[in-house]
Amino acid sequence: MLDNPDEYYRHYYQYYRRRVAPKVDVRIVIAVTITVISMIQYFSWWSRYNSAIKYLASMPKYRIKAIDLAKKEGLLQENKKKRGKTKEELKEEEENAIRTIIESNADIRGGYSKPKITDILWIQLILSPWFLVQYILWHLRWIWKFIIKREEYGDDEKHYLIQRNLRVSQSQYDSIEAHERDEMFSKELWIRDKYVEYKKQKDEEMRIKLAESSKYRSYRRYMKNKGPGRMTFDED
């Protein structure tokens, strides 16, 4: 040790690092991390869903329909039965009835859809072997039916191919308006060549629409005359 003091301090450091270092099970750390992520996921999804319900309940056309349905279903009391209740109680009763009707009738899709317990990270990890088996079986079925046997596509398969051409997730495809999905289906956009032609047409329509937009024309003139904005500093 005296001949090589650096070795002495290195052994000294290694010894106390093992003695002082906290003994934490890595599995516990991973489990806690996944749990926290799952809780954040679930509560954020509920927050977005509640925001969507509140937005629909604030829109007059949905609110009026919800009140009519609530009266028909007996969720809102008649005038005779309202006696003895304060305005706050009647308002709360009406809001709860409207929310109940909207939740049971509104078709909310995409990122604001009602959260499912099976979508959180913990459940996804637990069910991942099952999902993997389903994924493999689905692709084997596809290869057997449509590549080897060359069968005709069904409606579900056609919608899947349209979704794949659009390069969107299932939830994003479901959130597209029904009439737009019907239009794409009627144009046979599961066929790649027809989809490419459809996309070119839509891009051209968007280009013309932007060209006719006064704000877009002003932006183009500004960029042509002055170019992109710059940040300068005055030298004192």
Q: Would you spell out the secondary-structure blueprint of this structure?
A:
Layout: H1 5-20, H2 26-58, H3 60-72, H4 87-105, H5 121-148, H6 155-166, H7 170-174, H8 178-186, H9 192-212, H10 214-226
Helix pairs in contact: 2-4, 3-4
Largest sheet: none
**Whole-number radius of gyration?**
30 Å
Q: Based on helices, strands and strand pairing, what is the structural class?
A: mainly alpha
- Strand tally is 0
Helix content: over 70%
Q: In percent terms, what proportion of residues is strand?
A: under 5%
Summary tags:
disordered C terminus, mainly alpha, single chain, 0% strand, 236 residues, extended
Characterization of the model:
The chain has 236 residues and is mostly helical. The protein is 72% helix and 0% strand. It has 10 helices and no strands. The chain has helices spanning 5-20, 26-58, 60-72, 87-105, 121-148, 155-166, 170-174, 178-186, 192-212, 214-226. The longest helix is centred in the first third of the chain and has 33 residues, at 26-58. The chain is extended and about 75 Å long. The relative contact order is 0.05.
